[in-house]
Amino acid sequence: MNRFRHLFHGNASIILCCCLILSVINGSTSEASESAASNQKIDTVILQLKWFHQFQFAGYYAALHKGFFKEEGVDVIIKAGGPKVKVDEEVSSGRANFGVLASELIPKKAQGQRLVLLAVILQHSTRAIIVRADSGIKSPTDLINRRTMINRNEDTEFLAMFLAEGIPPGRLDIIPKDTTAITQFLHGQIDAFNGSIGNQPFLFQSKGIPVTTIRPISYGIDFYGDSLFTSEEELNKHPERVDAFRRATIRGWQYAFEHSGEVIDLIIDHYNPEKNRAELQFEAEAMRKLVLPELVDIGHVNPHRIERIAQIYAERNIISPNYSLEGFLYDPSPVSNTRLIHRLVAGFLIFMAVALFAGAVLIVFNKRLKKLVALRTSELSASNKSLLNEIETRKKAEKTILENEKKFRRLLESTTTIPWEMDLKTCRFTYIGQQAENILGYPLDSWIGFDEWATRVHPEDREEAVQFCRHETTLGKDHDFVYRAIHADGSIKWIHDVVSVVRNDDGPVKLVGFMHDVTEKERAEHEKKELEAKLQQAQKMESIGTLAGGIAHDFNNILAAILGYADMAKDEIPRWNPAHDMLNQVLTAGDRAKNLVKHILAFSRKSEQRISPIRIGSIIEEDVKLMRAMIPTTIDIDLKIPSDIGTVQGDSTQIHQVLMNLCTNAAHAMDEHGGTLTVELENVTQPGEGIPIVENTGAGEFVKLSVSDTGPGIASDKLERIFEPYYTTKEVGKGSGMGLAVVHGIMHSHGGMVNVESKIGVGTIFHVYFPCSQREESEEKKENHTTLPVGTERILLVDDEPMLTEIGKKFLTGLGYRVLAVTSSSEALNIFKEDPGKFDLVITDQTMPVLSGTELAKELLKIRGNLPIILCTGYSSKVDKVKAESIGIREFAMKPLAKKEIAALIRKTLEAS
Q1: 538: alpha, beta or left, given left = phi > 0 and alpha = psi -120 to 50?
Q2: Residues 121, 298: contact at Cβ < 8 Å?
Q3: Higher-confidence residue: 95 or 379?
Q4: Which residues pair with 37 in a beta bridge?
């Protein structure tokens, strides 16, 4: 260092002279540059917008009014657009120097217009299809046969979306969009129209009309939005002006998002927009989500996306498959302007001066430097040894790092999840684990970036997943979410994505995450929910059964009183009196009510099956008459019952249940438009094929019950499942899915079978086959006793209903019996204890306070073991015929009992004892 100091002092005069020369040269160059700058001409250019003034063009307003354009040497006139303005023609013709359009620039370039894309402002398109929230339209498929108004200049984006969803244009009712679109939409004349997410949702929200949007990006069609462009002629003639305009524009957009409130005031004060402040604020928020200034550099153009958009246009035959986009993408790096030339000239002069100075100095320094070189060589040799040692140390460290990296990769590749990493500046994957191919089926090289991931998310989950991920990333928050992914083979996988955001001083720079396959877990959760739903349904059915039993008990007691008094009143009235026939009608109605209770108990599984020979024709005819009141008058009922229908083996209440379920289903199928319900019986011999044979059933004689409707029919894929428990094609609240399962079970228990045929648009018909009985209906059912058996025995009658004890006492006394009737079971027990031999028979109700019928019977039988007892009940879940007999009770009867039934039962019990 001392040697250099000495060298410098020894040649100070030479150095001083050189410095003076350089200072003169530099001063002259600076003056020349300043003079050129002061004389620089401010160019006036025209920017043509595509629509009226609004926040969608905020960056250009900010660049103009904050002086960014003038700082770059241009003065700008901003011209508003509109529906009749053709921006590309304005720029191509030279009437405007710059313009704003979206992805439609690509086909215009491919078709021969000499246009240059300078900068993309909106990374995603504003275009969406607007629909009412209550219209039921949620996806492109729902737009089939719906009146949809779309601007022909913008339909490529939507057409690509429809084709991506497998919807050919012929299935869509598309009308060219005009200025009446919003009016027609408000009046319900169209179902949907294309608009902008920047303002349309706010417009309808302010009118109190909730709307939703269908965006192409949610279905894998991701076009660019507004972009700045110019003509090739403008770029060739004024390259420095083009670059200056582009730089000022990007500064303007950055300023607009940093000071959105100020820019909104600027738009209102200078441009008289059609929108109010609230609308502009809504639009500003919407534009931020489309520009993504926090994630993507404003103006950034992805050549891969441009090429993909062009391919979509080519696939739709908008442009030739052999299209060329040469010269379309602007490269801002090779800029030539006057100031640059000035700098190059000045630099050259300085370089020459430095060269002269260096030559003079080198001549003087040459000798002394030789000595210094020798000295430095010695020093460098020592440093070199130290450097070699450091290099060796670093190599060892690098080897350790590589080994650790291999271990880390092996660890990642051994997991059953998909590790991944994404660069936020390019939105491209920088790493994705090989598990992606195993779990989702797509080759590793197909996982390019964010867009590819989004297209593999299920369409119903896509928009929510994409928006959530972008929102959380913008906030710099780690996040996780669950969505459905589409496997390469078309199957569905459930994915739990856990994402970490990596930040630096400028904000988020990359994402690191793991995709977990949780399909089995989700399937287990789904099955658990289904089982819970079935359990709830079973509990509900059990509750209905309990309720039905309680109703049956009380109702049977009421019916017993009605039928008893009506029967006794009929005996007191001569046949010629009209009241006699009226009471017959009362008794007939009472019998129907009694049967109805039986049906309720059968439905709730509270009565046992009683198979016997039955004339099914009369049962079907009676049931159809009862159902007429339940079926809407818009549905006609056609009943076809031949006179020669045979006798079947069955339970009348369960046959009623079969008919009720089939007719109810048929009526529901015709609810909306009406139709004809046909019920038909016929005798058939089961053929060898064509009719399914259930287990333990062979060919033979059958009565076929057919129930058909003229409804919409059932699709073939659903027809296979209709007999499954809890499966239903009806809306929520219109069926439990158990009706046909019950029908199938009843027919199987009857040794019969059920078959169904259906045709879409024609209707459905169910065929039910009952085995014919080899015996006629029992004589016991046919005979009609005119004389009731009588007796003189002593009877203790016990029932907590005073009305029933009164009726019973009168009736039994009329038959000759000596009757003591009490309404308290404890009183009856006390009376019996006083004289156990006083009574020949006890008739008791089951459901009573203090002591039930069975409890009373036990106490009585303790006193007198051979006492004949008849137990009657309207309904009880605690006792049946078998349990009553096990206690020692002789007979068990269900209320209400007809006179002939109770009279016969009393004689049977007394004579048996």
Answers
A1: alpha
A2: yes
A3: 95
A4: none
* Pair 621, 679: CB distance under 8 Å: no
872 vs 352, more confident: 872
Residue 451 burial by Cβ neighbours in a 10 Å radius (0-12, 13-18, 19+): middle
Determine the Cα–Cα distance for residues 227 and 102; give it in Å rounded to an integer.
Answer: 6
Spatial contact of 125 and 151, defined as CB atoms under 8 Å apart: no
CA distance 746 to 67: 87
Predicted pLDDT at 684: 87
At 31 the pLDDT is 43
Other C-beta atoms within 10 Å of 50: how many? 21
- Position 453, amino acid: W
Tokens 């007979």 found at: 891
Can you tell me which residue has the tokens 């002591």?
851
Find out whether the peptide bond into 896 is cis, omega within 30 degrees of 0.
Answer: yes
Outline where 259-302 has alpha helix (H): 260-271, 277-291
Sign, CA dihedral 646-651-655-656, equals positive
Terminal alpha carbon distance of the chain: 141
Q: Are 707 and 633 in contact (CB under 8 A)?
A: no
Looking from the CA of 676 toward its CB, the CA atoms found within 13 Å total: 7
Summary mean pLDDT of the chain: 81
Contact of 787 with 804, CB cutoff 8 Å: no
* Amino acid in position 206: S
> Does residue 76 register a pLDDT over 90?
yes
Whole-angstrom Cα distance, residue 148 to residue 165? 17
Angle between helices 739-749 and 652-669 (to 10 degrees): 150
> What is the Cβ-side half-sphere exposure of residue 325, based on CA atoms within 13 angstroms?
22
* Sequence letter at residue 713: G
